[in-house]
From TrEMBL:
Name by which UniProt lists this protein: receptor protein serine/threonine kinase
UniProt domain Protein kinase: residue ranges: 204-525
GO cellular component terms, semicolon-separated: plasma membrane; receptor complex
Gene3D superfamilies linked to this entry: Phosphorylase Kinase, domain 1, Transferase(Phosphotransferase) domain 1
Amino acid sequence: PNSSAIVAATVGAMAFACLALLACLLGICYSHWRRLKLQQSQRLDQSDSLLKSSGSSSPSPPPQHQQKQHHQQPALSSASGSSFAFGQHRQKLDSTGAVEKLLTASNSSNSSSAVAFVCPAPNVSQQQQKMLAVPNNRSRGSAGGGSSSTGVCNGDSLPSTQQQQQQPNQNTSGVDTAPVFDHSQTGSGSGLPILLPRTVAREIEHRELIGQGRFGQVYRSEWRNDPVAVKIFSSRAESSWSTEGHMYELPGMRHDSILGFIAIDNIDIGLETQLWLITDYHANGSLQSYLTRCTVDQHTMARMLHSIASGLAHLHSEITGVKCKPAIAHRDIKSNNILVKSDLSCCIADFGLAVALQPGCGNVIGFGSGGLGVVGGSDSGIGEANNGLVGTRRYLSPECLNASQDARDFTALRKADVYATGLVFWELAVRCHDPNRGITAEPEYQQPYHDLVPNNPTLEEMQAVVCPPANARPPILPIWHEHPVLSRLCQVLTECWYQSPAARLEAMSVKDQTARMLHSANELLAADKETGTVVA
């Protein structure tokens, strides 16, 4: 009897201890839940107060505990598995009107070496800017063991409240003040927001290898049941990967004729780090591959020409105001870097060699072994990489081929893009097949200068053909002058190919001319439908 009582007492004590422990855990969970709900409520209240006070000329400062909590927000990192995704997720953020970044880079802790494009928004209060800003210490890494501070924007911390009051219209901290995410949509309010896609690469499944080149590989993949294209760069192409990411992340880069950007990511697979660029997927592939398979009628050709010209004009244009998009020179325009969308319009891709014009001072900004810097600058580390001899030799303009182009002259870089665009237009015209308009021939796809240089021409071979005294250009067929759309294109081609860069058309003029071509093609198509020449 005594032993039975001892066992019963022991079991009872153990049960009581378990119940006490369970009650303690429930209490801790409940306390944590209340704290998170309180933080969420405070953030929602603060968001409402910001909206109410956005029109006020003297907004009240945020509570001290909110400021402290904001300064403790963890910085974005490019550690293995993390990703920086913008695109569609940023559309709702753009409506806040907060300060948009252009381009900020620092290769060291010395602020004098930074190249920063910052455009303040006049209708945004200082309080909104402080609450929407986050530290952005992106470290993409360097395969060469150099500086790892090569992200779009680098900075150790946000400026203090006192510094912001002394210099309210300047961003001297080197941090990105763009509203990367909306705090009111972050769930509990603690940690990083749920709107920031930190695990894009983990959610992607590769389906098919669709391309391979000197940069790496391109896969048709799926992300959340949607098709995407994943471009995986080799480690030796890190500068191209980083440059493309910088260019796509610039504000104002979302355009119908620019390839849609989703995310940039670096993935550690053990023996190496893969560099990923995730974009929209277009099943028709590049313009070159499409023209190899298919011909186009005059209306489709005009639609493609206008979409390409629209994309180039958008790149070359500087947009001021809240968006603050800098002018961009592509420097590798060719049919293989233009994609055909499902509606048979086109979009420009591959910005691995692109450079931007720094607003206000005229410096050409590019990326090289030393990070972002002024092209040709003594401390940029990219002077040798930007001497004009970049791109695909077949599409290089005469001034690029004979090394007379000044890579620091942004106007010259744009005119080189126009020359290459004219060659792409010629490729389209060659494959124009429109029996309804008397164009019955179906010539095979031809590269520019296909009859004058081999498939992989050397620099000397291209110089001998394109530069003086030869000054050769692709042939303009006589039949093209007999049709309203193609005849107008003949004049555009001639004005894009002038030997002198100053004599060539501007991208906006090319866009206007192709708009007239498309208008003429639409009229022809409408007339054919009325007469029953084609089936509607």
